Amino acid sequence: MRRILSEFRLYFCNRWIAGIPSHTIRLFYYRRVMKYSIGENSAIFMDCTFDCTRHFSLGKNSVINGKCCLDNKSRITIGENVSVSQEVMILSADHDPDSPNFTARDLPVIIDDYVWIGSRAIILPGVHIGKGAVIAAGAVVTADVPPFAVVGGVPAKLIRHRSTDLQYEINYRRLFQ
């Protein structure tokens, strides 16, 4: 019975709540019903989907733009002042390709403060993205990213480093997103 209720909460979250054009209602549901930890002044825009009823935290002043896919079978931890652009996919579980039994693996994803992830980037399971890093649009991140690195490509490779003097605060909400 517990599993049925959990699956229903997830279905309702992804098919109904995600489409409501109100941050207040969505955040209430994510915090109170899904039990996600979401910091002050953070936003999760419309049409984002989750894969589990737990294992998700979002720091304060962070934004997840629309149509992102958050596969939180294992823990996804996103820090403060993080910008996740549209249609980003963050995966925290996969299968062992060498296992004869197709064994599942849960590998947490950690995204530190001041990270910017460009549109349609894919973050694979087990990745740690360091403070202030930038992930270019369309990049596929297969390994840890050092702090303040700018990476891009498939697979993502170092392009350069960005300034370490980051002092901005993200506070981005649209009325009907």
TrEMBL record:
Coiled-coil residues: none
A cellular component term, taken from the record's GO annotations: cytosol
Keywords: Acyltransferase, Repeat, Transferase
Domain of life of the source: Bacteria
Annotated Pfam families: Hexapep
InterPro entries linked to this entry: Hexapep (IPR001451), Hexapep_transf_CS (IPR018357), Hexapeptide_acetyltransf (IPR051159), Trimer_LpxA-like_sf (IPR011004)
GO molecular function, one term: O-acyltransferase activity
Family per record: Belongs to the transferase hexapeptide repeat family.
Matches recorded under PANTHER family: ACETYLTRANSFERASE C18B11.09C-RELATED (PTHR23416:SF23), SIALIC ACID SYNTHASE-RELATED (PTHR23416)
Name of this chain's protein: Acyltransferase
Organism this protein belongs to: Mucilaginibacter segetis
Lineage: Bacteria, Pseudomonadati, Bacteroidota, Sphingobacteriia, Sphingobacteriales
